[in-house]
Amino acid sequence: MTHDDGCGSFMECDEPSLDQLDEDSLLEVFGYFSFDELLLMSRVCTRFLQLSRRCLRKIRHFELDYRAIASKDVSEEQRQSRLRDIFANVGSNLESFKFSGGFIMNEDLKRGVVDGVALTCGTLQHLTINYVELREEHLVALTALLSHLTGLDLGRCALRDETFGPFIAKASMLHTLAIPGNAELHGEFLERWNDCQRMEQLDVSYCYSLNVGNLKSFLARAIKLKAVDVTACQWLEKDKGIFHACERKIESRAELPVFAYFKHG
Closest Cα to residue 234, out of 176, 172, 185, 167? Predict the structure, then answer.
């Protein structure tokens, strides 16, 4: 099957073929297709592409199943092609995206996911990437999202202050930030983050090297902050009253947004 402006003789039979149906009838038929079938139909012709995307655009919260993609017995180019198909068809309308991989993972696929999110998800509000080592080049690519992200969760992504600092300094719209389990963060990244006035919830739990004292100047700038989770962080005796000194009530547990994700890979 080729991708062209007409559908040609997509089906040869006595009954009306799909390309002979009016748009309303076609849209009803397409509503019964699975996610994979819609991706397949999007490659048939321009008309089917438009109809498939009308169906797929109903997906607002998407979780990419990395293991499903990585385990497919296909070539690397076919895996990348599938990623491109997914992002091309659903990326532009997503409000939230979630991706959990593993520290031992295909680097080309990781780059494909990062680039796909950064290049196609122009209306994304919440991004979750967990258990994925994010190096400087990945954070640089994701910087494109920071102008509209209100929620960010990069839990257990092996973040470092020297690369995460320049990245988060550009995050002016964030209301919630969760970076639990990043054991190599000390907290210097907070000193660079001046445009944090919209922040309400911060989760730095199990960042074992993070010194709670490094939150002091951040607390003064983040005037809307109402919850901070510092479970298992480092506390010095002089920092015991750090949250009382900011003259507002700050809860010790962050309540982050929860979404009902459509999961596929």
Answer: 185
Q: In angstroms, how far is CA 151 from the centroid of its own chain?
A: 9
Burial 109-133 (b: 16+ CB within 10 A, else e): bbebbbbbbbebbeebbbbbbbbbb
Contact 156, 134 (CB under 8 A): no
Stretch (H or E) spanning 64:
strand 61-64
Q: Please name the residue ranges forming H helices in the chain.
A: 23-30, 35-41, 46-56, 66-70, 76-90, 107-120, 136-142, 161-168, 189-192, 216-221
140, 259, 94, 5 alpha-carbon torsion, rounded to 10°: 130
Contact (CB, 8 A) for 52 and 18: no
- Cα–Cα dist 59/212, whole Å: 39
pLDDT band at 93 (very low <50, low <70, confident <90, very high): very high
Closest CA to 168 of 160, 207, 213: 160
Is residue 124 within 8 Å of residue 145, measured between CB atoms? yes
C-alpha torsion 179→180→181→183, nearest 10: 60
- Yes or no: say if 249 and 225 are a contact pair by the CB < 8 Å rule: no
Q: What is the pLDDT of residues 121-174, one digit of tens each?
A: 999 999 999 999 999 999 999 999 999 999 999 999 999 999 999 999 999 999
With a CB cutoff of 8 Å and minimum separation 6, the contacts of 67 are 265
Whether pTM > 0.85 for this model: the answer is yes
